[in-house]
Amino acid sequence: MKRLRRNPDESDPETNPDPDGEGSFSKDQHERKCGLSSMKMMGFFVVALMVVSVVFSVSVVLQDPPSDGVLESGKNVRFLDVMESSKEEQVLEVQPQKVVGPVDDDALSIEVRKDKLLGGLLAAGFDETSCVSRYQSVLYRKESQHKPSPYLISRLRSYEALHKRCGPYTESYNKTLEKLKTGHHLESTDCNYLVWISFSGLGNRILTLASAFLYALLTNRVLLVDPGTDMVDLFCEPFPEVSWFLPLDFPLKNQFSSFDQKSPHCYGRMLKNNSFANSSKSILAPFVYLHLVHNYDDQDKLFFCDEDQTSLQEVPWLIMKTDNYFVPSLFLIPTFEQQLSNLFPRKEAVFHLLGRYIFHPTNPVWGLITRYYQAYLAKADERIGIQIRVFDTGTGPFQHVLDQIIACTLKENLLPDISTEKPIINQSQKSKAVLVTSLSGGYFERLRDMYWEHPTVTGEVIGFYQPSHEEYQQTEKQFHNRKAWAEMYLLSLTDVLITSSWSTFGYVAQSLGGLKPWILYKPENQTAPDPPCGRVMSMEPCFHAPPFYDCKAKRGIDTGAVVPHVRHCEDMSWGLKLVDNESEL
C-alpha cells in the first residue's frame, strides 16, 4: 500500500528522497527470505525510516504552506513583508488573484512592488520609523507612469549634499548668518540661501513650497523653511541628516509677518527707488525680500526676468513670501530653460515628482490616512474622489452645486444613473467607493441618500464616505490642517478624481496622485454651468497670478502663448499651467 502524499513538494527529490513512498516496502519483502533475525532488524529499520519520513513531511507542510493558502478568496491579504530588506528595492511576486488592500487591483499579474525609493527619486538612509509614509506610501499607490529623469535624480543627490554642508548650524551657515547680523557684505561663501515664509492656507503652502524648492534647485541655493505654527506637525524632513526647518533663533524671523511691498528690503521697492541697481557688490544688501503674493506689482514681477535673476545671484539671503504656484513662469526664463528641460522631459510631471520627493505626512497624519483608507476604501473595485470647494457666500449646500456634481458624474460616466421605477434584479458584483471632501456635509448626505434609496441601473453598489466637514476653513488650527492634509492625500489615492475650479486643495491631490481630473467649472449667478465639467490638459497646478510682461521688449504680452508647454488654465482663463507638448517629447 502506498503512503498518502501530504505535500505537493514531496515529488521534489531535494525535499523527499523517496517521492513514491515505495522503496522501504520492497526491501522488506527481500529481507523476509533471509530469516527471522534479519527480518526483525530490517523491520525496526523500516519503522524508523517511516517515522523520519513522516516527521520530515509534516515539518515541510507547516513551514512552507501551499501558495493557494496565502490569498484565500482575497480576504486575508496583509502586507506582512513591509519590513524593508537591506536592498533598496525588493519585488514580491504573488499569484494573480483578487487582492483586498493597498494594491493595484487592475493589474493582470499582481506584482507588489516595494520600490521604496520611487525609481531613485528618494534618498536612502533615513530612519524609517521616524517617518513611516516615506517608504510605505508606495504600497497604497498605483505605479507612477512618470519616472524621474536621470538628471533630476543626480541634481537631487547634489542638492542633498549641499544641504548637508550648508544647512542650519553648519560652519557655512554660521558664517553666512554673520552677514545678517552685521549688515555688511563679507567675503563670498559657498552657500547662499532661500528662506520660505509660511503663509496662506495649507494647499497654497504646499504649492508654493514646491515652487520655492525648484527655484532653489535652479539657483544652487539652500532652502530653509519657516516652520510657522504647524509645518513640523504635518511634514517629515525630506533631506537626510540636516533639517530643512529654519532655526527659531534666525535674526529676521520676528519680522516675517510685517514684510510687505513697503518693506525697505522688498525687491520691487528697491527697484522703484533705484537702490538695488545702484548698489555695488561691496555694499550689496545682506538680504532681499521677494514679495510674490497675488497683489504684487509690476516691479515685484520683474523677479521673473533674466536680467534680474542675474542680479539676485549675488545676494546671500533671499526671503520669499508667496501664495502662488509660480513654476510655469520659471519655464519662461531663458537662463533656466535648458536645465528645466533636462530635469523634466515631461512638463506636466513637475509637481508630481517634486511633491512625492518633498511632502511626506508625519506619522500622526499617516495614521489618519491609512486607517481611513483601510476602513472605507481598500475593498472597493474602484475609488472615486470628489473634491468640492464652493466660493459662494451664504449657507450651503447649494442645489446648483449638487446639480452640477450629479450632471458631471453622469455625463462623463463616472457614476451610474439610478433607477426610480423598478428594482434591478441582476445585481452587479462591482463596487465603487466615493470619497467626498468638503467643508460642508450636505453634499455628501444628499449623494449618499440618493444612491441608498434607489438602485443603480447597472446594479453596481456605490458607497459614499466623507472624513470630515469642518464647515469653514480654520487655517491656524493644528488638527484641522492634519485632517486637511490627510484628505488631500486620500484623494490622491483614488482612481478617478473630480475637483473644483480655483482650488489649490484639488491641485495638490491631482498632482500627487498623477491624475488628470475632471474639473467642475465655476458656477456663475448660482447656476450650474453647461457643460458641468471638463477633463484637464495636464495634472499640473495653475499659477493664478502670473506676470504678462516681455522682459526683453519691455511691454505687455500674453505669456500663455510664448512656448507650447505653457498654456492658460481650464479653470482660470488668465492663469498659466504646464502641459506636455507631444512634439517636444
Average pLDDT score: 83
Structural class: alpha/beta
Q: What is the global morphology?
A: globular
Number of helices: 17
**Could you tell me the number of beta strands?**
16
Low-confidence stretches: 1-41, 54-113
Q: What is the share of helical residues?
A: 25-40%
Strand order of the largest sheet: 9-8-7-10-11-12
Strand content: 5-15%
Rg from Cα: 31 Å
Largest sheet: 6 strands, mixed
**What is the rounded distance between the termini?**
70 Å
Written description of the protein model:
This protein is of the alpha/beta class and 585 residues long. Among the domains are: 132-358, no CATH class; 380-536, Rossmann fold. The chain contains 17 helices and 16 strands. The protein has helices spanning 23-31, 36-63, 132-136, 150-166, 171-182, 202-219, 231-234, 267-272, 306-312, 327-330, 334-343, 350-358, 363-377, 399-411, 442-453, 478-492, 504-513; strands spanning 90-93, 111-114, 193-196, 222-225, 287-292, 317-322, 382-387, 431-437, 461-465, 496-500, 518-520, 533-535, 549-550, 555-556, 566-568, 576-578. Strands 9-8-7-10-11-12 form a six-stranded mixed beta sheet, sandwiched between helices. Helix 14 (399-411) links the parallel strand 7 (382-387) and strand 8. Helix 6 packs across helix 12 (350-358), helix 12 packs across helix 17 (504-513) and helix 16 (478-492) crosses helix 17. The model is unreliable at 1-41 and 54-113 (pLDDT under 50). The chain crosses the membrane at residues 42-62.
